[in-house]
Amino acid sequence: MTRILRINRDRLWASLTELKQIGAYDDEATGLRGVRRLALTDADAEARRRCVGWMLEAGLEVRIDRIGNVYGTRPGRDRSLPCVLMGSHIDTVATGGAFDGTLGVLGGIEVMRTLNDAGAETLRDIEVGFFTEEEGVRFGTDMLGSAVTAGRIPLDHALKLTDQDGKTVLDELVRIAFDGDAHERRPIPHAYIECHIEQGPILAGAGVDIGIVEGVQSISWQRLIIRGEAAHAGTTPIASRHDAGLVAASVVVMARQMCDSGEFGQLRATVGNFDLGVGQTNVVPHQATLTIDLRSPADDLMTAAEQHLAAYVDELAARHGVDVTWERMAKTAVVLFDPSIQDLLAATAEDLGLPSVRVMSGAGHDAQEIAAICPAAMVFVAGENGGVSHTPREYSSPEACGNGVDVLANAILRLADQA
Amino acid sequence: MTRILRINRDRLWASLTELKQIGAYDDEATGLRGVRRLALTDADAEARRRCVGWMLEAGLEVRIDRIGNVYGTRPGRDRSLPCVLMGSHIDTVATGGAFDGTLGVLGGIEVMRTLNDAGAETLRDIEVGFFTEEEGVRFGTDMLGSAVTAGRIPLDHALKLTDQDGKTVLDELVRIAFDGDAHERRPIPHAYIECHIEQGPILAGAGVDIGIVEGVQSISWQRLIIRGEAAHAGTTPIASRHDAGLVAASVVVMARQMCDSGEFGQLRATVGNFDLGVGQTNVVPHQATLTIDLRSPADDLMTAAEQHLAAYVDELAARHGVDVTWERMAKTAVVLFDPSIQDLLAATAEDLGLPSVRVMSGAGHDAQEIAAICPAAMVFVAGENGGVSHTPREYSSPEACGNGVDVLANAILRLADQA
């Protein structure tokens, strides 16, 4: 029988409760107390120091790298072997909650405490880390610290990124004294596991606390600018119109039809911006701008969806006599997590008596960067209120958080004893 | 053989050219010189004085009523008979041209000059008038002067209307000395004819200069506020969404389908406003506001169209789990012009060798107000550039204007000799 660890749920919850005081603000929209802890601000610095303090209290060796990522190491018996790594982030968006990212970091620290309480020895080193500027809200590039570590973004480029006041990442790292000496391209781990809230409704809908994450969807962001011709609503016959707003609306409807059709797999399409400029009730709109966010768990179906939409827009433009300009805002391919770690997580959950489902992540995570350098996977924890996130309404129960970190702890323990 | 008058086209054009200097401005959007002569401004006052001067030069008796409408009368042989009335307006929108409204007023003055040149005597008095604030741009109510005259809007209400600086109609009438003594409910005319540019492409498309206007379309303005729920574009399954933007876009597409279907006759639908608030590319929109402008030449088909759209929106709202609020912004019924005057206009055009077509007006006009108190109809004059109006690109050729005012002159002459 495999050894089973149980983390201290009260201690985990106490840590989550303590950290959410740092950067707390009163949110007008919800009437709730939220967390605003943008990367490398004073609030982030205070939260970093608190986490470092907890790491030191747990006896970990702490190091900080040149992009401000922080790691705490619990030594194993054979320190020449690659470590197993847990991690996530503690920076938040401007209207954040207490769980996004933070659960994975404080959960990792709680795993270390639990191992200490159990007097557990492991073959490999175990590390817990937090990565700089995962949200991308302050310096404009998300998953910044993990992307630098994995080599996708060069350190020099990252350090020069500026916030809206012109302050650079380097300036701010120095200012808060988190400009570490460790090389940003960290030693390659044996494996990486990130525990994170789901930020969606699928787990709650399935009645489970635990999701085994198969990968991160492909993301396509495009902007469409449609130029037609203004015309009098009363006097212009329908057939004479070049209605930019109608073309834009048709794109919105088609994007949804593509999702509903099943032809493009589990495509998700969202039009979050739709702008006619200063409209007039009785004037046919001459220009429309919209953004199209497409997500797909399959790169080939994403390509097919983009092509289908482009062909539809061409046909629409010809039919209505409008000009269309496409702008590519962002595009990332599907990242698939390591199947053997997924299976290990699923087996661990089963051993703990916790039902789980396999899900794709719709949002980006540090794990998708770290997956470039070692086998990686994620454990999702169910959220309440439909799984809302990036709002103070974000909430996962102590039970759900405890279950997720139990899965993390036991999976890490098994990986740390792999030869 | 009926007597045929021909107006002096050069003199008409010279008047149009002179009046467009008053309120002229350089339009940045078009690079053209436009006309900005909002009601009861200094520019409008100067244009009013110029028109009064021309009326007096033509030997007309001028009177001003209590809402600032101005009439010039050419006496007939039997002054006890109701007069025949020509008219329109000389106020413009902020980005206006030289023809909208002005053609009917200066055309009417030119008819008077032509009658003088011909030494014509008529049985009835003939009057030419211009009505206050037809555009509604300054004080918010269009066809204000004619509506007061026809009794739809009480004088007291009209005089208290304010512009965006809080100035009332009465203040401004007094300031520019057009607060007349004549009763605003004018003597009932024998008939009313308004010559006006078409402001649309139908006449040019038919290859004619002259339109005989059958009436004014019904106009329905509604605002739709759709409240859904914000959600993460990546993590929220399609079936879990309450996408206010999608519902709004579906309404836009349906409104156009209703026009194309033929089921609602010659319905015209326009969505000129579509607002998602501050959108985010990766967030499902929680609220959408749009306006729907419907026009129909048939009241029953307008009712059917409104009902169809409302039922569709109810079905959409239920399907997507969103709340919808309708706000009625405006609604006017179809106004049908007097068939005998339409026939007289058509016969007159034919006698002048001018081909014409019957059309419904998509825009509102003073004639629809005056139609409430006497037989009324309109002559439309073709415009170039697709019939654009409310822009400095608005243009009707000297020939088209001359033809339109020739029809006006001869129809008025015939009406003025009717016993």
What does this entry look like structurally?
The structure is a homodimer of 419-residue chains. By secondary structure, the first copy, chain A, is of the alpha+beta class. Chain A folds into 2 domains: 9-216 and 334-416, Zn peptidases (Aminopeptidase, 3-Layer(aba) Sandwich); 218-332, Alpha-Beta Plaits (2-Layer Sandwich). In chain A, 35% of the residues lie in helices and 22% in strands. Chain A is built from 12 helices and 18 strands. The first copy, chain A, has helices at 9-19, 42-57, 102-117, 144-150, 155-160, 169-175, 202-206, 244-261, 299-320, 339-351, 366-370, 398-416; strands at 24-26, 33-35, 61-64, 70-74, 84-88, 126-130, 191-197, 210-216, 218-227, 231-232, 268-270, 274-275, 283-284, 287-296, 323-332, 335-336, 356-361, 376-381. In chain A, strands 3, 4, 5, 6, 7, 8, 16, 17 and 18 form a 9-stranded mixed beta sheet that branches. In chain A, strands 9, 11, 12, 14 and 15 form a 5-stranded antiparallel beta sheet that branches. A two-stranded antiparallel sheet of chain A has the order 1-2. In chain A, a hairpin with a 6-residue loop joins strand 1 and strand 2 (33-35). The two termini of chain A are 18 Å apart. The model of chain A has no long low-confidence stretch (mean pLDDT 96). Chains A and B meet through strand 10, helix 8, strand 11, strand 12 and strand 13 of A and strand 10, helix 8, strand 11, strand 12 and strand 13 of B.
